[in-house]
Amino acid sequence: MESPHKPKALSTNLFFLFLLLSTNLITLFLSATFYSSSSCSLSSAAITLIPSSGRDSSSTPPQPLRTTQSIASTDEEEDLPAEFIAFTSGQVLPFGFNTNFDSDKIYPPVGSSCSRFPEELRRFMSYEVNGSCPDDELLAQKLLLKGCEPLPRRRCRPATQNHCVEPYPLPESQWKTPPDSSVVWTAYTCKNYQCLIDRYIKQKGFDDCKDCFDLNGRERSRWSSSKTAPAGSLDFTIDEVLSLRAPGTVRIGLDIGGGVATFAVRMKERNVTVVTTSMNLNGPFNNFIASRGVIPMYVSISQRLPFFDNTMDIVHSMHVLSNWIPTTLLHFLVFDVYRVLRPGGIFWLDHFFCVGDELRDVYGPLIRSVGFRKVKWVVGRKLDRGEELREMYLSALLEKPLDNSW
Prior knowledge:
Elements: H1 6-38, E1 47-49, E2 64-66, H2 82-88, E3 91-92, E4 105-106, H3 118-124, H4 137-145, H5 193-202, H6 238-242, E5 252-256, H7 262-268, E6 273-277, H8 285-291, E7 295-297, E8 312-318, H9 327-340, E9 341-355, H10 358-370, E10 373-382, E11 391-399
Parallel strand pairs: 5-6, 5-8, 6-7, 8-9
Antiparallel strand pairs: 1-2, 3-4, 9-11, 10-11
C-alpha cells in the first residue's frame, strides 16, 4: 500500500533545501561585508587627505587621516554641525569587540545639552580642520555652563598668546603676579593683570572673586595660621584642619570653585596636592592658577567629579556651594563629594551661605542625609550686604565614616 505521507516528505525536503541555500547566501554576504570593513585595505571613504594649514607643504607634506567607520547618522542629526557628528558618532573599534568596552564601538562623551543649542554649537564647531580654532572662549564657556559639558573635542589649534614667556619658577610663582603675556585677553573686560588687581577698588558692580587677583591683599592671609581667629569663628585655618589627622595622611585633595587657588598653594606649602576647579568668569582664573604652579580643572559645579570613588583625602569649597544652586542639584553634588572622599576623608564646607531659616529647614537636613559625621559645625551671621537680608554662613568639617559608610 502507498504511504499517504510521501508527498509531505517531499515538500519537507524541498523546504530544508531552500533553507540551506538561504543560510549559505546570507553567510557569504556577511563574511564579505565584515572582511572588507576590517581588512587593512582602506576604501576611499576611510581616508581623508587634509592639507597642513599654515605650514610649508614641502617640509611637511599632507598626511592621510585614518578614520574608523562611524554609525550612520539619523535624520535628527541633519541640523547639527558635521564636525560635531564626526566626533560624537559611535566609532567602530579597529580590532573588533573589546571586553573592556563590552562593545565593538566607542562613543565619545559629550554633554547631552549640546544639541539643545544648535546655533551656539554650530558656531563652536565651525573651523578649518587642522587649522586654527576661532578665538571663542566666551562662547565655549557659555555652552559649557548651559550644560554642554564636556564640550566636544575639536580638530584645531587654540588661540595662544603672541609673545609668551617662560613662567616664574617655584616657589616664586606661588605669590607673584604672572606676566600679562601668559593670557589671551579677548574674552575679558580687563586686558592686563593690573586692571584685575585694581578692580576691587575702582570697579563698581559685581564680579566673581573681585579681589582675588591681588596676591598682596586678602589672599595673603586666607587660611593662614598667622591670622588669629576668636573661638567660634567661621574662619578655620589649614593647620587647624590638618591637625585632625595623623601627620602625612592628608596628601591629595580637591578645591571646588577655588578662585585663584590660594587654598591649593597653601596646601602645596604643606606637601599636599590639591586640584582646583574654576571657571573663567570675566577673568583668566585657570591661566592664573596654572601660572602659580598648581593644577586648574575647568569644570562647572554641574559636572560629575572626574575622580574615582574613595580616593580623596580632603575636599574643600568656599562660598561656591550655597543657596544659589538648585536644591536637587546640590544634593547630587554633596553626594558626589562623599563618593570621591576616602573613608576618613574630610569635607571642609567653608562659608556656605543661605537665608533665614533655610539652614534649619533645607540645607541642614540635606547635608545630614548624605551620611557625614560632624566634626565641627559653626553658624554665623553674614552681614556684608546688610543685616536686613538675614543671610547666614555655615562653616563645617564633615568626615566620611571610616567604616559602615554605606
